[in-house]
Amino acid sequence: MPALVIPSPGSPAHPRATDLREGPTWKDAPYPVLVLGADGRVVDLNPSARQVLADRRGAAAGRDEAPSWLADAHRSLTDGTGVPSTTPRAAGEIAGRFFEARPGPVTDGSATWWLTDVTGRREAERSLLGARRQAEVRAMVSSTLLSSLNVPRCAEVATRTASEHLADAALLVLPPVGRRYAVTHAVRGGPAVHTSRLVDPRDVPGLAEALQGYPPVPARWIDPAALPEWVVPAGFGGAVGSVIVAALPGHGVPAGALILLRSSTEQAFGPDEEEFARLFAARAGAALSAARLYSEQSAITATLMRELLPPTLENVHGVDYAGRYRAASDHERIGGDFYDVHPGADASRETFVVLGDVAGKGLEAAVLTGKIRNTLHALLPLASDHEQVLTLLNGALLSSHHTRFATLVLACVRREDDGRVRLRLTSAGHMPPLIVRADGRVEEAATHGTLVGALPSVSVRTAEEWLAPGETCLLYTDGITEARGGPLGDELFGEHRLRQALRECAGMPGEAVVERVQMLAAQWLGTGNHDDMATVAISAPRTARR
Amino acid sequence: MSGTPLSAAELRDRLWQAVLEGGEYEAVDAIRAGLDAGWEEEALLLDVVASVQERIGAEWAADRITVAQEHAATAINERVITALVHRQPANRPAGSYRGRVTVSCVDGEWHAFPARLVAEVLRLRGWQVDYLGAQTPTPHLVAHQHRTNSDAVLLSGSISTHLPAAHAAITACQAVGVPVVAGGRAFGPDGRYARALGADAWAPDARGAAAALEAGLARPAAVRDTVDDLPHLADQEYTMVVRSRSRLVKQVLVDLESGFPALRAYSDAQRERTAEDLVHIMDFLATALYLDDAEVFTGFLRWTAEVLTARGVPVRSLRSGLDIIGEQLHDFPRALRLVREGAAALRDGAAAGAVGTAV
């Protein structure tokens, strides 16, 4: 007979099944208790254990047949020599319920096993784990969907995610541009594919309504037989069993429609899927409409900005021009500085160059630079007379509602037959241009004048300069010289450092000069704040173009 | 395929002479000669133009050409690339469209040449390339990703001090779902800093970048916690050193002057150079702190010692500067360890240099 241990004080150390003592014994315990013999078979058991074993299907196995997991645990317990260091514990299923079993001491290969029903706890743990996993998937899907403001990218993520978690294949149909529909599809495990189609959404029941986005329509299961061919992606293996069409709710704008294809013919989602599908549609709709709004806005901005961006400069009539611009704030491309090169009608005519700085920075200043640039463009026929141009511009600025003023440098440039370049330079309240001679001398053009847009009249003095081949005239704005920083953190870059830098630029091509000046100023600044910085180099090429 | 075969060495010599003399047309002629001799554009770009560009940098470091010559030569080399890749695109075999990528320099990086080469090589191989060039603010790079849905960003960095900015750019691109291939000298000869900063791939050169793209890159799945990349930043030493850079430089200058009377006779310009040198040292030190990697710092010091020696400036002043910086940083154990390793590297370098000159 095996030894039994009843884990309560006062229990006999070696109770016997046949013990005829008064009072409760292990047989009366409210837990299933089994005594397994050396052969792993059930030697004895209490009524509670009998009830559990009897629930087994095919109870014909006999009452002395222990569940295999318990028999295994018993065998490994009795095979071991001596007492195990920790209480061994076994767990397994009996008749659809789940039990943990703890053994008493082993005597002659026999032991008593106390079983605890942990079915409820296990279910709870399992559902907690499932919920956690689901939450992870949802968080991942949400952050992936919302990570991009690019419409095609959002569509890719949405279809791939849907084909991974909700269906065997997913199609996303975006609201049409003209008569064409952008359709993105993904088959489970495959990449997302973009197509543009000339289709009639009314061919797919519910699609036209879903694409309108408003009023809200519930997702609906439709008959797979009614699907037009284009809806089934090439890689979809086998027949389509069930189809659902769902609208993606956007931010007041139609975000698109999702078509989910499944192989199974069951026209229903599980409760978890249902919830996930609803959340997914909301997130995908939000992401797509945010991306759509962003792309519309950035297209508008790009169109408006195109006119305000500094132009790309190149060789004009045998003279090299190079320009570089850095806006005051890194997230903008435009600001209150500007430059333009207006080529002469032919090589014998002067090319008109302007560089200027409007008081203030940012978009508002940029808008005014646009007006000044347009005004100057209109004044091109008069460009050879700098004073007249500036007087007319001054009048235009004074009569406009802008209260800002501007400083400018005007240059008329022509290359002569001997390869030298003739410059007529006029500063209107602006730093005079610096000329880098072939031998490294840096000279200031002798021009000065009043700024425009502030005083009733303009008075200026124009300087004439000549550039020999390899020499450069630099026009720049005060963003360069007033860059604050340096190794000690609080000094201005200043004109003397600019001149020093230019002395080292003798003989350099114009684009290398503007790059170097901008680079030194940027390095001087480090990460500090700065104004707009513009530089234009006018250079007489060293070698003649053949 | 006409004319006599031209070796890479011959073409390199011809191009080198042309860029050195600022001869744009001679330089373009040299490359045209290569094309006429049957060279592929990609091979010309990488085996001739790129290696001439490398030589420009090396010659400057060795003080055999001036800064002006370096810039002029680089500008000419850029024009050579333009002339090479813009010629008769119709004659080029129409490759299949592979995808769209963005090529950009790290914010603050002015060395655009390597990025330009990568951009042109990828174009030649059939990629649609958006080349953003030098000094691209990270917000522009990210906005560009929202606008274009690139398959990848190729991020180029030459100077290691831009690595913290590179880290920001890498994580920002990945956060919008675009994988990043890092390349350029800044990321280390074996790309170890690319890995440390969480780049999706590293490429040693333009061919490597093309190979990384052709192998295919997975989209970064979810938002990554950048704190996990560099856990040592929790000690705040990087932040403190960066924040107190100007103060430290001023203090070190004062200490240098009291220790080296010769410094008091320096002109303002000379003092400014010294201050700038100190700033460079601090910047590389900060980057080494950021990455927790001494090689960033010691490598910079060894290189600086070479440049100084080539210009006849004694390396002793560099060592004194380091010593004083070390005194100022006594509260920062990680920074202090880096400074000591830097000083040791300079001693070893000086010993090796002494042996070298004796031979």
Task: Chart the SSEs and their pairings.
The complex is a heterodimer of chains A (546) and B (359).
Chain A: E1 33-36, E2 42-45, H1 47-54, H2 68-79, E3 90-94, E4 97-103, E5 111-117, H3 119-146, H4 151-165, E6 169-173, E7 181-187, E8 193-197, H5 207-212, E9 220-222, E10 242-247, E11 257-262, H6 271-306, E12 320-326, E13 337-342, E14 351-358, H7 362-378, H8 386-399, E15 406-415, E16 421-428, E17 434-436, E18 442-444, E19 448-449, E20 460-467, E21 472-476, H9 478-481, E22 484-485, E23 491-492, H10 494-503, H11 510-525, E24 533-539
Antiparallel strand pairs in A: 1-2, 1-5, 3-4, 4-5, 6-7, 6-11, 7-8, 9-10, 10-11, 12-24, 13-14, 14-15, 15-16, 16-20, 17-18, 17-21, 19-20, 21-24, 22-23
Helix pairs in contact in A: 3-4, 3-6, 4-6
Chain B: H1 8-20, H2 24-36, H3 41-61, H4 67-85, E1 99-105, H5 113-124, E2 127-133, H6 138-148, E3 152-156, H7 163-175, E4 180-183, H8 192-196, E5 201-203, H9 206-215, H10 237-243, H11 245-259, H12 268-291, H13 294-310, H14 316-328, H15 333-358
Parallel strand pairs in B: 1-2, 1-3, 3-4, 4-5
Helix content of chain A: 25-40%
Largest sheet of chain B: 5 strands, parallel
Are there runs of chain B of 5+ residues with pLDDT below 50, and where?
354-359
- Per DSSP, the total helix count of chain A is 11
- Look at the structure and name the CATH superfamily of the largest domain in chain B: Cobalamin-binding domain
**N-end to C-end Cα span of chain B:** 48 Å
User: What is the rounded Rg of chain A?
Assistant: 42 Å
Q: How would you describe what is shown here?
A:
The complex is a heterodimer of chains A (546) and B (359). Chain A has 546 residues and is an alpha+beta fold. In chain A, 30% of the residues lie in helices and 24% in strands. Chain A contains eleven helices and 24 strands. In chain A, the strands form five sheets. A six-stranded antiparallel beta sheet of chain A has the order 8-7-6-11-10-9. In chain A, strands 13-14-15-16-20-19 form a six-stranded antiparallel beta sheet. In chain A, strands 2-1-5-4-3 form a five-stranded antiparallel beta sheet, with helices on both faces. In chain A, a hairpin with a 5-residue loop joins strand 22 and strand 23 (491-492). In chain A, helix 3 runs antiparallel to helix 4 (151-165). Chain B folds into three domains: 1-92, Methyltransferase, Methionine Synthase (B12-binding Domains), Chain A, domain 1 (Orthogonal Bundle); 95-229, Cobalamin-binding domain (Rossmann fold, 3-Layer(aba) Sandwich), CATH 3.40.50; 233-358, Globin-like. Chain B is built from 15 helices and five strands. In chain B, helix 7 links the parallel strand 3 (152-156) and strand 4 (180-183). Chain B is flat. The N and C termini of chain B lie far apart (48 Å). The model of chain B is unreliable at 354-359 (pLDDT under 50). Classes of the chains: A alpha+beta (546), B alpha/beta (359). Chain A binds chain B through residues 140, 143-144, 147-150, 152-153, 157, 291, 294-295, 298, 326, 330-331, 333, 470, 486-490, 500, 504-509, 511-512, 515-516, 518-519, 522, 542-543, 545-546, and chain B through 22-25, 66-68, 71-72, 74-76, 78, 107-108, 110, 135, 137-140, 143, 145-149, 175-177, 221-223, 245-246, 249-250, 269, 272, 275-276, 278-279.
